[in-house]
Structure formats: C-alpha cells, structure tokens
Specification:
Layout (H helix, E strand, L loop, with lengths): L1 E4 L7 H12 L5 E4 L5 H10 L5 E4 L6 H6 L1 H22 L3 E7 L23 H20 L2 E7 L2 E2 L8 H10 L3 E5 L5 E3 L1 E2 H17 L5 E6 L4 E3 H12 L4 E5 L14 H7 L7 H16 L2
Parallel strand pairs: 1-2, 3-4, 4-5, 5-10, 6-9, 7-12
Antiparallel strand pairs: 8-11
C-alpha cells in the first residue's frame, strides 16, 4: 500500500508522524510526500507506486469556518487537486476509485434523515460546495472513462487521532483544562457523530464491493451513525466522561453551519452491509480514555 500526503501545516507535523509510526513498521507500507495540487507530484506517486489498481481519495482541506475564511484554498485543493488525481488515474488506466465526500453536501432544504437521492444543490459553505463539486467530477470521470467510482459521505467522524480542531477533540481538551467551551447558538443543533472504526468498515466494504463488481458503476453512500446528538448533550457527555464540569462560553450562531445532520444509511446497509456498531454513549468514553492515554505520554 502506498500513501500520499503533503503534511499540510493545519496542525503539527509531529502529530501526524506519531500517527504514522505504526504503519511505517510494516514492510508493505510506503509513504510518498507530495502535494495533490501539483500534477508533477501526483505523477510521481504513480511512478513510485507500481501496480496500483485502486485509489482511495481521502485528501482534502476540511472545515466550514476555515473555508469561509479562505475559499480559494479549499477550491484549489478539493476541486483542482481532485481533478489532478482523476486525470492521473485515467492516464495510468486505473479504473477503480473510492472518494471521501461529506455530509456537508446536504444543504438548505435537505430533509432528515438525509438520503443519497437528495439533489444537494444548495450548499451552505465553500467547503460543502467543493465536496459536491468533487462528487460531480467523480461522476463525470465514470461517465467519460468507464471507471468504477464510489463516493462516501462521511458524517462527523470522531475517535482516536481525530484532528485537534474538531469539536469532540477540542471540547475534551478545554474541559480537561477547565477552560471555557465555545458553543455557537443555543446548544440545540445536532450532529450524526460516527465512530472512526465504523467509517473504516464502510470504506473497506466499498473497496470490497468494487473488487467484486464486473460492470463499471457510480455509487453514492452515506456513512453515519444514524443517531442525532444535540450539541449541549455532547458537551455534557464529554464532561461526565472526564469527571469535570463544562464551563460554557455561549456565542452567536455562525454562518455556513447546518442546524442538524442525520444519515439515512439504508442504502449502505443493503449494498455494503454497513451497520455502525459504536453509539455516542459508548464512543465518547472511549475517546476520553484515548485522550488520557495521550496526555500520559
């Protein structure tokens, strides 16, 4: 297996290097450092990775608020960068691809639980627009070149090694340090939080489906926990797991945020055998346990 990463400085490289430590010990793993937005780097990784027959495209700039602050950067990475990868796959004759999309593509007017049959034509942030554009390019790649392409819409993934800026990681850090936790709005917004192992199961199932398929296809699946959790409830669960009170810093609602997300996972269940196993009630204490182990060094 060959991985391709540019070690974007959004958070510290040393954190990413720790995450890679176990993989580096495996002889079958190779890391190629490069930038998705540079066609020369993309070509290089395929020159190095001989015999590739399937690409799992997980690279992106993520986040609603950062995308509002710098939409051009998000478009460059998530759209132009994805195009570079699609074109490289076409040039090398690689016909199978799994593309990581996002629940953010569901925007204004989407009905809960979110179904893959929604039009998804009213995104609420540049990030959402860029991921939807990636899906449209994926379909075009399938249509023009006969490729198998599966788009997976991830719903608020959390678990060990989660990015430090994301809510559960951030809230855990702040509550543990007895610092104020910023909550935007009145705390009633909700998310479909999904444990990382369940997401990995869905990705692996999509890969297995492609290797079994004998006809090119384009598919879209929701991967979520299918369990809504309100923001204030989430904070309270983290505080309970830590055994410390949460100090709330109430703030106004932010533009670009969706009020609620909830995945309809019936298609993924029927076609991929996807069945999330870890509820928030189980996952939050697991995450806090991991957090404490990291703090202990």
């Amino acid at each position: 297996m060959t991985a391709f990463d540019n070690f974007d400085p959004f958070y510290a490289r040393e954190v990413k290097e720790r995450n890679l430590a176990g993989l580096r010990r495996h002889g079958a793993f190779e890391l190629v450092e490069g930038d998705l937005t540079d066609p020369r780097d993309v070509k290089h990784v395929f020159d190095v990775a001989v015999g590739v027959d399937l690409v799992v495209h997980l690279a992106a700039l993520a986040g609603v608020r950062p995308s509002i602050a710098d939409p051009a950067a998000f478009w460059k990475v998530n759209v132009s960068g994805s195009l570079n990868l699609f074109q490289a796959c076409y040039a090398r004759g690689i016909k199978r691809m799994v593309f990581a999309s996002s629940s953010s593509v569901y925007g204004e007017g989407s009905q809960r639980p979110f179904s893959e049959q929604e039009a998804c034509d009213h995104p609420l942030s540049p990030y959402a627009a860029s991921k939807r554009a990636g899906e449209l390019m994926a379909f075009n790649h399938h249509h023009l070149h006969g490729a198998w392409v599966t788009c997976l819409r991830f719903f608020t993934v959390y678990g060990p090694r989660q990015r430090p800026d994301l809510a559960i990681h951030k809230f855990t850090r702040l509550i543990d340090a007895e610092r104020p936790v910023p909550i935007y709005g009145d705390g009633t917004s909700s998310r479909d939080y999904t444990w990382i192992d369940d997401i990995i199961d869905g990705v692996c199932a999509a890969i297995d489906q492609q290797t079994r398929a004998d006809q090119p296809g384009f598919r879209v699946y929701n991967l979520g926990g299918s369990q809504p959790t309100r923001l204030r409830e989430l904070v309270d669960r983290i505080a309970d797991a830590l055994g410390k009170p949460a100090i709330i810093d109430w703030r106004p609602e932010q533009p670009g945020d969706m009020a609620h997300t909830l995945a309809d996972i019936r298609r993924a269940g029927a076609e991929l055998g996807y069945a999330p196993q870890v509820s928030v009630e189980i996952g939050i204490p697991r995450f806090v346990k991991w957090w404490r182990l990291v703090q202990q060094g």
